[in-house]
Amino acid sequence: MSKSMIPGNPDNIERLNFSKNFQTAFRAFFTSLTLVQNVKVIIPTLVYMFLQLAIMTLYLLSIERPWTSFWALFAGGVAAGDLAHFPRHLLLMQQVLGRVDMLVDTFVHVVFQAATVSLVSAAFRKKTVSLSASMKESCGRYFKLVFVSLLSAVLVYSAINLARHLSGNMDGIVRAGVAASGVLAGLVVQVFFLFSIPIIMHANPPVARIVPDSLRMALKLPLASAFIVAVSFVITLPTTFLSLKAGMIALQLSPDFMIHSHIASMIMELTAAYLLTAGATIIFIHKMEAVSK
User: Fold this and answer.
1) Which of 86, 88, 189, 228 has its CA 20 to 30 A from that of 23?
2) d(CA 266, CA 280)
3) For residue range 195-237, what is the model confidence (pLDDT) as tens digits?
4) What is the pLDDT of residue 142?
């Protein structure tokens, strides 16, 4: 038997059975939603949402130096003085906080996702685990969690920006197609890393085995894994498209629209993140229990 925690030789019939994969993904999502009855499983998500709201509030209130100089670091060539004036401060909020969120997501959100894995696993198996114990376990595996979080973020960011760079001199459908290919590549990366956090929290393997084991698990049920990632992505599409037009809408309606847009995006992204994390955890548990029988 392979030393990897995920045995090889997957069942090809199961792997490529569209109906079975769809049912697996649907059951994982449905179970994720039913587990919300146990409020404890979504507390890490709620705590992280309040953290993001606190960052947004801090941004809205800090329109003087030295804070404007700090926020300007994330504004991409915008001077600190531009962040000290209304409504420019609000209109630049999405640009600034979008980059701040990327940083915080990579180094902080992953800890809350790992705690969610522990709580979902316990609730699904009808066991008891405290929030403090799950957070302590997550923090104890922080460097492995950040490793996979940072690696996946770099790969997704690289894929999207490479496609954006290549499509820069193109027009029409070709440009849209090349740009979309970057998004598709980013989603494929997410599929590869889908089971990395459950693997870390359940087996805590060496760093070198985490991504290969996650990929091996994803290849056992590639369509189910793709469904989980795709549905989570689709959930965020309405607010993603809204955010692209938020600045223009804010100029026509009110600068305060930027606040509403940011909060809406935050809620949808965290909802998608919970479903992605919980769904992957449930599929992982099912698969590992089937292997152990």
Assistant:
1) 189
2) 21
3) 999 999 999 999 999 999 999 999 888 888 999 999 999 999 9
4) 96
Q: For residue 106, what is the DSSP state?
A: I
Q: Give the span between the Cα atoms of 42 and 39, in whole angstroms.
A: 6
Q: Enter the tokens of residue 37.
A: 């009855």
Note the pLDDT tens digit of each residue in 96-134.
Answer: 898 999 999 999 999 999 999 999 999 998 888 788 999
Tokens of residue 167, six digits: 């499509």
Q: How far is CA 190 from CA 93, 220, 268, 287, in A?
A: 27, 15, 18, 19
Q: What is the pLDDT of residue 5?
A: 45
- How many Cβ atoms from other residues are within 10 Å of residue 19's Cβ? 8
DSSP for residue 107: I
Record the tokens describing residue 215, joined without a space: 């990929």
The Cα angle at residue 91 between residues 85 and 93, in degrees rounded to 5: 95
> Angle formed by the axes of helices 18-34 and 222-244, to 10°?
60
Percent of the chain with pLDDT over 70: 91
Helix or strand or coil: residue 63?
A: coil
Q: Which residue has the tokens 């790992």?
A: 114
Give the ranges where 167-256 is alpha helix by DSSP (H): 172-192, 196-203, 207-220, 222-244, 246-252
What is the phi/psi pair of residue 108, to 5°? Answer: -120, -50
pLDDT confidence bin for 62, thresholds 50/70/90: confident
How far is the C-alpha of 41 from the C-alpha of 38, rounded, in Å? 6
Distance CA 202, CA 197 (A): 8
Cα–Cα distance for residue pair 226/164, rounded to 1 Å: 23
Provide mean pLDDT across the span 157-186. 80
